[in-house]
Amino acid sequence: MSTVSNPPGSAPRKTSLLGEQERARLQRRKRVGQAFAAITFIPVILAIALILTLFADVIFDTLSWQVVEPNNSGQTFAWSEAPLGGLAVMRLELSAQGLSDSDIEAIISDPAELTRFRARNRIELMWHTDDGSMRWVVTNSRDDRLDYYGFFEGFGQFDRLAADLGPDQNIYLNPWLDFSFLTRNNSRTPVVAGIKTAIAGSLWVVGLIILFALPLGVGAALYLEEYAPKNTFTRFIEVNIRNLAGVPSIVYGILGLYLFVRLLNFGPTILSAAVTLSLLILPVVIIAAREAIRAVPSSLREASYGLGATKWQTVSQVVLPNAVAGITTGIILSVARAIGETAPLLLIGAAAFIPFLPEGPLSRYTVMPIQIYSWIAENDVEFYNVASAGIIVLLTILLLLYGLAFFVRRRFERNW
Amino acid sequence: MASSRTNAARTAGLDKRGNRNVKESAIGVILFICASVSILTTFAVVFVLAEETVQFFREVSILEFFTNPEWTPLFAEKNYGIAPLFAGTMLVTLIALVVGLPLGLGSAIYLSEFATQRVRRVVMPIIEILAGIPTVVLGYFALLFVTPILRSFVPGLNLFNALSAGLVMGFMILPTVSSLSIDAMQSVPRSLREAGYGLGASKFEVVTRVVVPAALSGIVASFILAMARAIGETMIVTLAAGQKPTLTFDPRETIATMTAFIVQAGTGDQPTGSLASRALYTVAATLFLITLLLNIAAQQIVARFQEKYE
User: Chain B contacts of A276, Cβ < 8 Å?
Assistant: First the structure.
């Protein structure tokens, strides 16, 4: 082809059969191809950059600088005085406030007093204080917080801030996410707000969801894959499930509000939330379970029938055990979705402020994303910090679940 | 063998088989009931939305609903025109699509056609993580990170604005577009690509003139499903775009989407049966219809136009 297009009389090339023009065109096509491949790589970089930026932003938002004038003792204690923190630091603080040993013991042995102390104070190990590094500080919600700086902002101005400090004032680097954040109830004061009740609420909701959605989802998948006759009605169910998967989550919230909260009178309880979210994730569970069941080769079923097993014996003892990895993965991913779901729960009455642990399915509740939403909605810089701490907790739990799903898929999935 | 059995043993065996049959069919029925839950859910959704919507339209004319340029059901002076909410939804969705479709398709082409196996194994889980980030987190990010940055170089940008919500939502729909498009491109048979190479086409030419056209139905379906997700998305717009219904196409403005209104009205205490509460259901019904139609359209496109290869 190329020899034909060579102009007659031109010297034959040893290295290539192509003429100048063709070679140039080939080069151009190659370059266009490379440029295109590079361009399609940009979205991948952008997506990864967005995830990293988001994580970094949220992590740095859990730190802030504050200029504080303590209202109580304002003393700091060396880390070696109370290596494990907790009650030991509390004793030191109370005695610094001038309480006698017997008073201190009385406070510590009374659970109500302890709760009150913890609701007002936060025990922090600070890497830098005026008295030296690595010292315990008991911050109090009634301390005067004079000035607030974001992490980078305060970092840049640290020298000026330190020079401008008045007597009895301190600069705190506030680590909003610490262990006590996980063990405190919510509060109207950002420094002592915690996520304990929300974690407990999420656990309750997730537990009930698994109870509802797992049998229903797997049952429906078994019916569609193993039992359903191929008729219009079956096709209707299938199309319907696909459409339900595309219904916006907030519409499920409306359904839950009308049907469970009001009509069935469950009220704004854990039960309402669990039922609503179960319906929400059911299509995803069914689709995942069907895929797992379909992946079990029919030769296994036939072998089972050949041994005289009934349909249910085959399904329960041959098909299900072989599909369990795929089903588990699907359930974990669906549960992860339910844990992060906010919009429907806003409608069915997850409350922003629940200062107690849920006691049962008919208890009022809050969950992690609702708690985070309500902190953001407070529209206050310190509550933004609290929200970011909550986000880290939520994202950590979700990442663990994704990791678990990934592990189950890798470890237990069989290739036939 | 059967002849050596006594009659009694035979009857017992038959009884056992009879019990087994009863059990077998009972299980079939139970599983059928499980599958029917999804149908009941659909009926319940349609019934709840329809009932309240019909009540709503007894008091507000359909004409007003579609033509009144204001939506103020929670104010003293009430107006029931869906236009501002619809415009708000469309504005954010449009921005999200402008960002999300090219990014999603681009990453799909890269991951399906150009990436090595190793790169794919690393990158695809990361994109799945993007899909798994709760939208309340994305809303936080839009409000507290993206908006402040945008405000430093977009003059007149409101604290709550459609632009930053739309941008972040674009990344939210990226994984939807990406994973569905990858599926579509992966199902283009190898023989087709090889025919392309056999004709002397470069990789770029095979991708853009063979693979993408052959997978077009799946790609378009992924676009439509991504659009449906963007329209139904709630938390990003509630947090970052605001709750002020405005009939505008200026992305710097504070707006309210249909979903943001549902949250606003649903979290306030609207007495059951009040017009404001019914307005909530009516907006939800509109949202449901739009997303349902988009979903059906996506399925139809795949069913009708998907190239079948034997």
Answer: none
State whether B135 and A53 contact (CB < 8 Å): no
Give the count of beta carbons closer than 10 Å to the beta carbon of residue B182: 25
Task: pLDDT band for A1, please (50, 70, 90 cuts).
Answer: very low
- List chain B residues with CB under 8 Å of A399: 129
Host H or E run for residue A84: none
8 A C-beta contact, residue A375 and residue A58: no
Here the tokens at position A221 are 């998948």
Q: What percent of chain A has pLDDT over 70?
A: 91
Report the gap between the CA of B76 and the closest CA in chain A (Å): 23
Chains A, B: CB pairs < 8 Å: 253
Residue B10 in tokens = 């035979």
Residue keyed to tokens 């399906």 = B112
Model confidence, pTM: 0.87
Number of residues that make up chain B: 310
Window A:109-128, CB contacts with B under 8 Å = none
Write down the ipTM of this complex.
0.90
DSSP 3-state of A140: strand
Residue B1 has pLDDT above 70, yes or no: no
Q: Tell me which residue in B44, B123, B239 faces A44 most closely, judged by beta carbons.
A: B123
In Å, the largest CA–CA distance within chain B is 97
Per-residue pLDDT of B198-217, as tens digits, reads 998 888 999 999 999 999 99
